[in-house]
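Appendix B. Chain record.
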Amino acid sequence: MQLRAIRADDWPMILNIQDECYQALDPEPLHVLKSKWEVSPDSCFVMEKEGQVLGYCLAHPWVEATPPPLYQALTELPLPNTLYLHDMAISARAQGLGAGTKALAMLKQVARRWSLNSLSLVAVQGADSFWRRQGFADTESLKCLGSYSEDASYMILTV
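C-alpha cells predicted for this chain:
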C-alpha cells in the first residue's frame, strides 16, 4: 500500500470510493471535495496498490472545536491549531492492507511538521469506535454538527 499525492485523474475513483463508503450521508459534490485539496494539497492523498486507488484522505489545517459543515467548499484557511481530517474513505477491496494505519501515521507526521498539536474529525456512521481505538477522544464541538448525521461525534487526538 502506497500513499501518494492526489492527481487530477484520481477524482473519478475518489468519487466511486465515496459512494461505496457512505450510505447514511448524501455524497459531497466534486467541487466541495476538490476545495479541501486545493487549499491544502500537502495533506490530501490517496492510498494505492498496484496502480489502483483504494482509498483517499482529505485533510486541512483548521481550528479545534469548530468543524466546517459538510457540503461547503473551502476557499481559505483560518489561523489553525489542528489538522482536520475531513474525510478518510477506504474501499472494502483494501481490507487488511493497513491503509488506515498508514494514513493516520502520515496525518500525524503532517500535523507535527506544521506545528499543529492535534488531529480532529467528525466521526459518522458508527466510526467513532474505530477512532477511539486509534486514540481519539470525544470532545464537545462549538459548532452544530447538524450537516453531518444524527450519530456525528467530534473527536480529537493530541499529537
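Further analysis of this model is presented in Appendix C.
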